[in-house]
Write a structure and sequence with these properties.
Largest sheet: 9 strands, antiparallel
Mean pLDDT: 84
CATH architecture of the largest domain: Sandwich
CATH topology of the largest domain: Jelly Rolls
CATH class of the largest domain: Mainly Beta
Number of domains: 2
Structural class: alpha+beta
Shape: globular
Length: 265
């Protein structure tokens, strides 16, 4: 009787594990935590003048330092080799370690930039910039309609460490931001269409100003309906803790079953 009861408990736990660790249907996710001290993995290509020289992986994240005296002022950053389709949620955790005030241009800091596969091209950006006359702001611009000009919005911020995100549900694009470790808050939304993402960039940017910038990217999270050719893309988000817990539960149940059998023998 005891053996049957223990076997029943074990089967129940196995079924519970199967349900709890099952990926969210119809989505894939990709995460790189740069705080491990690892550099960009095979999913990424780096871009910008001297990118390999100004990037340095360290325990706190992927560090990018742009000197004020550099000759080429183009942005430096990461872009994935894979493409993104369907609904998506793109976010970065970052820290602006130091930034000189810009003498020209649109701002010094970090941003997420995406471009949809459309004609004319639809683009959107969310950033944390230090800007002339504004100080530190959460900045967004987008061009998703027939207008040639970008729509621009900005929101003051005091923090130099936080999260930025772009999220699409259906045809609606959400611009979101939040403090480090807190929930993301919506800043703005607009209709943007359902086309695939043909370009995604995670950027350290001085906006054309010869200013010094020191930033740290801590983590990148991407979840979408489909990630085409993404290495280690997994269904759902955050399922690995459930696998660990589930394995521990099954191990404990197995030991308990063995002990009961031994008692009954």
């Amino acid at each position: 009787m005891r053996n049957r009861r223990c076997t029943s408990v074990t089967v129940t736990l196995l079924l519970a594990l199967g349900c709890s660790s099952r990926p969210e249907q119809g989505s894939q996710s990709y995460v790189q935590d740069f705080r491990t001290g690892r550099g960009p993995d095979a999913a990424w290509k780096v871009f910008g003048p001297g990118a390999e020289q100004v990037m340095r992986p360290e325990r706190g994240g992927l560090r990018i330092r742009l000197d004020a005296g550099r000759k080429k002022l183009e942005p430096v950053g990461l872009s994935p080799h894979f493409s993104i389709s369907g609904d998506f949620d793109l976010s970065i955790a970052y820290e602006i370690v130091a930034a000189d005030k810009p003498t020209k241009g649109y701002g010094v800091g970090v941003n997420i930039l995406l471009q949809l596969h459309s004609e004319p091209a639809k683009t959107a950006k969310i950033a944390h910039y230090l800007r002339q006359g504004q100080g530190n702001v959460l900045f967004l611009d987008y061009k998703v309609g027939q207008k040639e000009e970008y729509e621009v919005k900005s929101f003051p911020t005091e923090s130099k460490k936080g999260q930025l995100a772009l999220k699409r549900t259906g045809s609606t694009l959400f611009f979101m931001a939040g403090a480090s470790g807190s929930e993301l808050k919506e800043l703005f939304q607009t209709e943007a269409g359902k086309e695939d993402v043909q370009l995604l960039r995670i950027v350290a940017n001085t906006g054309g100003s010869p200013s010094a910038l020191d930033v740290r990217f801590e983590e990148v999270r991407i979840r979408a309906g489909k990630l085409l050719n993404a290495p280690e893309a997994s269904g759902g988000d955050g399922s690995w803790p459930w696998l660990v817990v589930g394995a521990a539960v099954i191990l404990g149940a197995g030991i308990g079953l063995w002990w009961w059998k031994r008692r009954a023998a």
